Amino acid sequence: MAGTPGRDPWGAPRICYLLGSLLAGLLSPGAVAFNLDVMGALRKEGGPGSLFGFSVALRGQLQPRPQSWLLAGAPQALALPGQQANRTGGLFACPLSLEETDCSRVDIDRGADVQKESKENQWLGVSVQSQGPGGKIVVSTTFFFTFNIYHFY
């Protein structure tokens, strides 16, 4: 029956699908990964332990001149000077060039109030999205804390 809990519309119990998937996963060989474009592959490097490239997005800049960028998230990048933290994560902009070390950190924490915000281990750069040429960029963080200090007299 279609309304019976634990069954699909064709009548097979859900546990059969679960066990079948588990068995197929155990019997199949390991996954194989490959690069589709072996001749034009770009390699970019970030700081050690920064998880540079955890997330990436392509960005088309229109002003002041048209240019393409690779945006790379690095959730464990070292903090910028003045952030009063050790590791905050970060966003890096890399030109589409053959140079491996030409990425620069995007300073998106200007005006942060270190008295009200804790950026230690916030994992900035865990997700990076771009709207496309001339559009907006979204970079997310997993752990970001704000706090208020109340004085009672």
TrEMBL record:
It comes from the Eukaryota. SUPFAM superfamilies: Integrin alpha N-terminal domain. This is Integrin alpha-7. The lineage of its organism: Eukaryota, Metazoa, Chordata, Craniata, Vertebrata. Residues 1-33 form the signal peptide. Keywords: Integrin, Signal. Gene3D superfamilies: Integrin alpha, N-terminal (2.130.10.130). It comes from Camelus dromedarius (Dromedary). GO terms for biological process: cell adhesion mediated by integrin; cell-cell adhesion; cell-matrix adhesion; integrin-mediated signaling pathway; leukocyte migration. InterPro entries: Int_alpha_beta-p, Integrin_alpha_N. GO terms for cellular component: external side of plasma membrane; integrin complex. GO terms for molecular function: integrin binding.
